């Protein structure tokens, strides 16, 4: 190597210098000896030989010195050419005197030989060093290209000739300045300033690493600002996105996933899934996972559905269950809610049981330890055509994310990239499930936790706008967190299509319309199970937990975890959801820890809420669903004592707190089954006694579904929300 050759050169040079010094020393000694000999010869009149007879003696002295110093003998003998000189010659009578200048000539000749040899050796070493030098930087670049694509195109500012020369000159000056600073820092033993050490780098390259370092700062504001700049800078090259994806930590990756319209190249794809042993199907994997979970700390319904999923085969399960069933509050027919493939029906059934297990904190660790995250990832990738299966899977991930102990496992199993892609889905339901899971993962920016059944409609991503108030939407019987609040269904006619009328339909108008008109609001939608008949509930123990009192306590606990009550609140409820809102406020008034919810409630909007009951509960002969009415329906009976007490207690709270109230009443009958058409909530029952009452020409199902954004129903709703929160600057 070059270092070894330089070491050899230094060794030879030292030997030559030592040899040269020895020659001078021995020459001086010989000179003194010759002077003594001259004196003796003069006295004895002896003749001396020719002048060159002195050289053999000198050489003998040198050889004797080298013999005494063997380490340098080889190099010295190679440098000094010794030849045999004759000492014979005619006798000279007159003995010449050896002057000092002659000895100096000998020294010059010897020095010239030594110096020339040194120059020759130096030249050979330098030439050899250049011949065998390897450009290690090129090898390093090739190595880096294999995973971060170091080669990238030039920036637009470097395309012109003049700008290119200017940039090149600036880089060379920066390189020289950096070398000077590096030498200075070594001499003074001080650290080199990081900014100055990268002055010659590409501005975008330097900015990337500065932002990546800031994203790990101990200052929360610095971290969040760095994430915003990372996501909003669209000048990154592809290799820089790949670099960031490998460098960012868990906290930064989650934060980037919650930035609106973030580039998906910031996230590494999910890791390859291991091959299953013995060709185990997904259905069998889900059953094995369910079998490994403890059956303790879960209610009777979870045990019932878990045992059912473990016991039934896909063929019998596909043909057994009929009618309506509901595990998540949608109330959809079983045959319509699942796909046509029998195995997918069993998978969905198992996933519904896993949803309930994931609500138990101790079971979350078991799901992760038994490979549940990888199994769910496999199901998600194989069932991309089934939105229902994907929603159930992300719902499980959102429940698991409530426990910070499993956050690392969720990130390592590749779920951040999946959620980052899903939150940008045009389907509001899919995006809302992903938004809930990411919010539960983002502990750096979100202090609240969103339990199962509480969904964020706005803001679903990180935002710089401060949240001034909360608006909560609560559905009614057979409703859901999203489908209840969709736009009114309508078909585009052929004439409209011919005229080029574009259908702008929204699956959830609070998310699409209200969030755009009031960006400083946090809009939440809650979901709970509800049934018209006990026929619909397949769990035997489900009837015991469907009362208003049970649901009120359950939702109050979830809303408290979500931070509801810490800022002004406006409630929007439909049908039985209005009764549930009143029950929650009455219960909160009795709990000292929830008094802030009463204090911050500014307004309540009721869509066809049966404050005094409904006639629908009395029809139980001609309606198939009401042959065995559920607890919810029984509580809606007209002039029910429970409703009367609830109404009186709520009116006292609303009057004391000066809560603004607006009620909408239906005037169009609603079809209940194929044979019955009734006015579900008459205007008399929808009139609370305080606030305004507005009757609209809509039935019970469509009274909470505006036909379009400029319709009276939506405009009046928006006006009420803004008036209830006047002074909060929510626009």
From TrEMBL:
One of its GO terms (cellular component) is mitochondrion. ARM repeats lie at residues 371-415. GO terms for biological process: animal organ development; phospholipid biosynthetic process. It is a single-pass membrane protein. It is found in: Endoplasmic reticulum; Membrane; Mitochondrion. Its main location: endoplasmic reticulum. The keyword tRNA processing does not apply. PROSITE patterns: ARM_REPEAT. The chain crosses the membrane at residues 6-25, 106-126. Keywords: Endoplasmic reticulum, Lipid biosynthesis, Lipid metabolism, Membrane, Mitochondrion, Phospholipid biosynthesis, Phospholipid metabolism, Transmembrane, Transmembrane helix. InterPro entries: AB_hydrolase_fold (IPR029058), ARM-like (IPR011989), ARM-type_fold (IPR016024), Armadillo (IPR000225), SERAC1 (IPR052374). Belongs to the SERAC1 family. PANTHER family: PROTEIN SERAC1. This is Protein SERAC1.
């Amino acid at each position: 190597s070059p270092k070894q050759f330089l070491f050899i050169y230094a060794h030879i040079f030292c030997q030559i210098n030592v040899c040269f010094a020895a020659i001078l020393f021995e020459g001086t000694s010989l000179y003194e000896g010759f002077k003594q000999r001259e004196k003796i010869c003069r006295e004895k009149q002896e003749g001396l030989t020719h002048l060159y007879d002195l050289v053999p003696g000198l050489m003998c002295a040198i050889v004797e010195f080298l013999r005494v110093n063997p380490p340098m003998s080889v190099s010295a003998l190679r440098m000094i050419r010794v030849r045999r000189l004759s000492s014979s010659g005619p006798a000279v009578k007159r003995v010449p005197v050896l002057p000092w200048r002659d000895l100096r000539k000998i020294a010059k000749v010897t020095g010239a030989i030594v110096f020339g040899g040194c120059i020759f050796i130096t030249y050979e070493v330098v030439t050899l060093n250049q011949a065998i030098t390897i450009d290690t930087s090129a090898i390093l670049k090739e190595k880096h290209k294999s995973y971060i694509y170091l080669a990238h195109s030039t920036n637009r500012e470097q395309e012109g000739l003049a700008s290119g020369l200017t940039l090149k000159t600036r880089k060379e000056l920066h390189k020289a300045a950096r070398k000077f600073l590096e030498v200075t820092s070594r001499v003074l033993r001080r650290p080199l300033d990081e900014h100055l050490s990268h002055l010659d780098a590409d501005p975008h390259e330097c900015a990337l690493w500065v932002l990546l370092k800031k994203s790990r700062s101990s200052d929360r504001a610095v971290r969040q600002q760095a994430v915003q700049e990372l996501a909003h800078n669209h000048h990154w090259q592809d290799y820089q996105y790949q670099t960031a994806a490998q460098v960012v930590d868990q906290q930064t990756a989650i934060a980037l996933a919650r930035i609106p319209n973030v580039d998906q190249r910031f996230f590494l794809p999910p890791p390859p899934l291991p091959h299953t042993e013995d060709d185990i199907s997904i259905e069998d994997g889900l059953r094995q996972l369910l079998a490994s979970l403890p059956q303790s700390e879960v209610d009777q319904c979870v045990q019932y559905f878990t045992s059912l999923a473990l016991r039934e085969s896909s063929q019998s399960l596909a043909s057994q269950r009929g009618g309506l069933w509901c595990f998540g509050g949608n109330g959809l027919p079983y045959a319509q809610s699942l796909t046509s493939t029998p195995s997918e029906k069993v998978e969905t059934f198992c996933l519904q049981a896993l949803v309930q297990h994931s609500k138990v904190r101790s079971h979350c660790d078991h799901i992760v330890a038994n490979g549940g995250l990888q199994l769910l990832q496999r199901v998600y990738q194989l069932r991309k055509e089934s939105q229902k299966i994907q929603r159930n899977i992300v719902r499980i991930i959102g429940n698991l994310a409530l426990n910070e102990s499993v956050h690392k496992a969720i990130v390592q199993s590749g779920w951040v990239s999946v959620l980052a892609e899903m939150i940008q889905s045009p389907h509001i339901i899919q995006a809302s499930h992903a938004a809930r899971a990411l919010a539960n993962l983002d502990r750096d920016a979100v202090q609240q936790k969103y339990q199962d059944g509480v969904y964020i409609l706005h803001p679903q991503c990180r935002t710089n706008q401060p949240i001034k108030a909360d608006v909560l939407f609560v559905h009614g019987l057979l409703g859901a967190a999203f489908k209840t609040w969709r736009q009114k269904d309508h078909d585009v006619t052929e004439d409209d299509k011919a005229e080029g009328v574009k259908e702008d339909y929204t699956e959830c108008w609070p998310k699409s319309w209200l969030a755009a008109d009031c960006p400083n609001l946090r809009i939440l939608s809650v979901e709970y199970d509800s049934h018209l008949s006990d026929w619909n509930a397949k769990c035997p123990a489900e009837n015991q937990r469907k009362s208003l009192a049970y649901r009120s306590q359950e939702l109050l606990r979830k809303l408290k975890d979500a931070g509801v009550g810490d800022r002004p609140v406006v409630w929007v409820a439909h049908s039985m959801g209005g009764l549930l809102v009143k029950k929650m406020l009455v219960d909160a008034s009795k709990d000292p820890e929830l008094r802030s919810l009463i204090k911050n409630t500014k307004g309540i909007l009721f869509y066809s809420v049966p404050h005094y009951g409904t006639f629908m509960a009395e029809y139980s002969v001609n309606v198939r669903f009401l042959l065995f009415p559920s607890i919810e329906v029984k509580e809606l009976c007209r002039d029910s004592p429970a409703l009367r007490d609830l109404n009186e207690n709520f009116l006292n709270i609303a009057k004391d707190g000066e809560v603004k109230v607006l009620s909408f009443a239906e005037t169009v009958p609603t079809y209940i089954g194929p044979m019955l058409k009734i006015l579900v909530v008459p205007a008399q029952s929808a009139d609370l006694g305080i606030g305004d009452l507005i009757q609209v020409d809509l039935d019970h199902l469509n009274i909470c579904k505006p036909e379009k954004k400029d319709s009276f129903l939506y405009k009046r709703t928006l006006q009420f929300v803004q008036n209830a929160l006047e002074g909060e600057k929510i626009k």
